[in-house]
Design a protein that fits this description.
This protein has 8 helices and 18 strands. The protein is α+β, with helices and mostly antiparallel strands. A 5-stranded mixed beta sheet has the order 10-9-12-16-14. Strands 11-18-17-13-15 form a 5-stranded mixed beta sheet. The structure holds copper (II) ion.
């Protein structure tokens, strides 16, 4: 094994010896340096501690401020989870719930499409019997209304702030100076801006007021579909819009409405994840298609933070436009496609065999938390076992 020394061994050996001595000295110096740095750090820590301890006496009138500083970014576990906590009559409540209409509305005619939304603080249900105090676009809850325009149309957006604090609207479909168009609108005021919908696809819109995490987590998001006209898509028989999002609750929301638990939002520990704002709503109220029809899903992941791995159980996407890049060529025969937070995707399925086909985020914690629905093809017998 060691029969033949490496040709360079004779050359390297003395160098190694020298470097060994060098490293010994270097290690000693380094050890000394670490000790000095450690000592300095200790002194700085002691100074900081003294400063903190003397702070209450310095601004005795505002002890709350000191407290807030200490807890501002505290995402320490455990955070109380209300995932899956529903009242006993949850099934009856789920059946009574009016599902968000996922059907893509017709695009408006003409060159100019006027869109008006009035922001409103309102209580919605995010799961059966689970109430949440949202800041909502247009008083419909979350997500906001589906906006549908054709490529080349100009959108005139008028935002009226009927809420209690400043809000704004950021359209991902727009190429526009955000400091001008997406500016904060004060309570009671309105603001109008225009943009040309030149880039087809499905895009998120959302409130962009700081902290954006809180405004999106509180329900301020929706989808705009820009149907391509330069290079039209293949015909679809049914078109549905799904906005995926997650909810972070400070209570179970059953006796009284929950509101945002910011620490959970920062820690990315949702209580519920949903399509169109309500857990499992299309399990109880499935989307429908006839056998052999082409169904198109326009999907947006609103987050505020988590992605959606879109998949339809029991079939394969005949066409998928990742990132909603409908100007490009679709992928064929793919199973699961990432829809990133703040992004979109367009998916065609053509299912011949009647049945119940779940659509999910295949990151399965999402399914457990409510991001699952059914596509009911034809009139199948029986119910979904999972
Ligand atoms: Cu807002």
């Amino acid at each position: 094994m060691a029969s033949r020394p490496h040709p360079a061994a004779g050359y390297h050996r003395p160098v190694e010896t020298d470097s060994g001595a060098f490293f010994k000295v270097a290690a000693m110096l380094l050890g000394f340096a670490v000790a000095v740095v450690g000592f300095i750090a200790l002194m700085m820590w002691a100074d900081a501690r003294d400063a903190r301890n003397s702070a209450p006496s310095a601004d005795a009138g505002a002890p709350a401020a000191t407290e807030n500083r200490a807890t501002d970014h505290n995402t320490a576990l455990p955070l109380n989870s209300f995932a899956g906590v529903v009242p006993e009559n949850a099934q009856a409540l789920a059946e009574a719930h009016k599902a968000y209409d996922a059907s893509l509305p017709a695009a408006a005619a003409g060159d100019l499409v006027k869109v008006q939304m009035t922001l409103k603080d309102m209580t919605v249900e995010v799961a059966p019997g689970v109430k949440y105090s949202t800041w909502s676009f247009d008083g419909h809850g979350a997500p906001g209304p589906i906006v549908h325009v054709r490529e080349g149309q100009t959108v005139e957006m008028t935002l009226t702030n009927g809420g209690a604090i400043p809000h704004s609207i950021d359209f991902h479909a727009a190429r526009i100076a955000p400091n001008v168009a997406f500016k904060d609108v004060m309570p009671g005021e309105s603001f109008t801006f225009r943009f040309k919908a030149s880039d087809p696809g499905v895009y998120m819109y959302h409130c962009g007021t700081k902290p954006v995490l809180a405004h999106i987590a509180n329900g301020m998001y929706g989808a705009i579909v820009v149907t391509p006209t330069t290079k039209p898509l293949p015909k679809a028989d049914k078109e549905y819009v799904l906005v995926a999002s997650e909810w972070y609750l400070n209570g179970d929301g059953i006796k009284e409405p929950a509101s945002l638990e910011m620490n959970k939002a920062r820690a990315m520990l949702p209580d519920w994840t949903t399509f169109n704002g309500y857990a499992n709503q299309y399990v109880t109220h499935p989307l429908t298609a006839k056998p052999g029809e082409t169904v198109r899903f326009w999907v947006v992941a609103a987050g505020p933070t988590l992605d959606t791995d879109f998949h339809v159980v029991g079939t394969i996407f005949d066409r998928a436009w990742p990132n909603a890049n409908v100007s490009g060529e679709p992928q064929h025969g793919v199973q699961t496609v990432l829809v990133p937070a703040g992004g979109g995707g367009v998916f065609d399925v053509k299912i011949d065999e009647p049945g119940l086909y779940p659509f999910v985020s295949h990151a399965f914690a999402h399914v457990d938390l409510g991001q699952v629905g059914l596509l009911k093809v034809g009139n199948p017998k029986g119910t979904m076992s999972h």
